Amino acid sequence: MPETKIGFEIKKLEIMDLDGNADASLEPKLSNDVLKQMYEKMVLTRAFDKKAFNLQRQGRSYTVAQVEGQEACQVGSVFALDMSTDWIFPTYREHGAMICAGMPLERMFAYWMGSEEGLRTEKNIYPLTIAIATHLIHAAGMGLAFKNTGKKGVTMPFFGDGATSEGDALEAFNFAGVFKTPTVFLCQNNYYAISVPLKLQTASKTLAQKALAFGIEGIQIDGNDVLAVYRATSQAVERARKGEGATLIECLTYRFGPHTTADDPTRYRPQSEVDEWRKKDPLPRFEKYLAKKGLWNEDYAKKVSEDNNAKIEEAVAKAEEMMKQLNPHDLLKNIWAGEQPMQQQEQEKLLQEFLGEGI
User: Fold this and answer.
1) What integer pLDDT is reported at residue 332 of this predicted model?
2) Number of domains observed in the structure of the chain
């Protein structure tokens, strides 16, 4: 028998160029109000990021993971969700996604100031994950639970290129493929897993093509194009709601700053590379698009910036007040339901001794 070729392909989606010109045939039909809301959330995300960085440098906060440069990935994707039914699964860099999902700013600041209580919320936001790729399995599992119980929810875990080198990610893709879970895997490929460049992580031409091995949809998009992010995510969410299974979206993007405030990116990437990516900054690019529609001008931008800065300062004040109310015994809260097991009772005693209580 002759050899036959099995055809697989990965598409790349781009809608808006660097000058803000959009392909009308691909441009999502969004109202002017929604477009402005997306822009305002992107600006707020960057303002939060800058303030969090400054607080760390002032000694008022601990290590922070910055998101500057990746705002379009997070805002565009969450705007495609229905946060009354859908869930996001963030890592340590998803400030924009959590803001769009309704996380109060003061709780986000409090988390980076050292309070695990900070990110407790009634919103559909899974607890922030530090361990790489573990939450992808959780997202696929929750997706199966939705499917089995007839709920309409879609799960969306956020992760970076480095996570695709972890076994947990591959297990999650496989699980989602086999059980057709309503999961949208949102990979922000910023080309570095801390200091390890993408070329040393994988020999694949794209990360999106990894979806093919597990029987799920895969697409690569310009992650600095908020319109492309929204369109691709909307289509993936629609597929998931119809019971057609999971999608892996690879967003090509770049973090302008360090991996965290404890990192020095000059040791592993050239400034010329950063400068090239600065030309693709998602914010000014979107501003040009909005300006062409008559939705953006300098006065509007100034007002958005001033309003957001006021929100930021108010949130910081609330966060610092929250930190004053912390109790060391909160370390052992929310671990067990019901009666404490013997191990935790022993830990409580050790904590009391450490604090000099009852001595």
Assistant:
1) 82
2) 2
